[in-house]
Amino acid sequence: MTCRFFVDDIPIRRYPRKSDDTFPLRPMYVYGSIWDASSWATENGKYKANYGYQPFVGRYSNFKLKGCVADLGQSCRPPSGSPSTDGGLSRQQVAAMQWVQRNYKVYDYCSDPKRDHSQTPEC
């Protein structure tokens, strides 16, 4: 079982279930937020926040959310962006996800040496 996040049918993140602690077998929810300009969110101040552009607003259009009941396994259908019948990613999707992560991912808590990873089993 894996949690996948798509934007415009392009996978951007993938979280495989490594243990019962990785992600829960109970209802979950999704929310979006705008991060502050803390040092961890700006690569130790490399990216400065320009507060002249405030208020900062996040907007979503055509937002679709698809989930599955955890214990039904095989009866869950993959998101529309996945051509695979088992819900996995094609080689093209994996390559697209890696490109997005190389070019747009600013922060990954699993790679942050300042974090205590004993509380994040997915890392």
UniProtKB/TrEMBL annotation:
GH16 domain mapped to chain residues: 3-51
Assigned GO CC terms: apoplast
Domain of life: Eukaryota
Group of enzyme by EC: transferase
GO biological process: glucan metabolic process
EC number: 2.4.1.207
The name this protein goes by in its record: xyloglucan:xyloglucosyl transferase
InterPro entries assigned: Beta-glucanase-like (IPR000757), Beta-glucanase/XTH (IPR044791), ConA-like_dom_sf (IPR013320), XET_C (IPR010713)
Residues in Xyloglucan endo-transglycosylase C-terminal domain copies: 86-123
Species whose genome carries this gene: Ambrosia artemisiifolia
Gene Ontology MF, one: hydrolase activity, hydrolyzing O-glycosyl compounds
Catalytic activity reported: breaks a beta-(1->4) bond in the backbone of a xyloglucan and transfers the xyloglucanyl segment on to O-4 of the non-reducing terminal glucose residue of an acceptor, which can be a xyloglucan or an oligosaccharide of xyloglucan
Keywords: Glycosidase, Hydrolase, Transferase
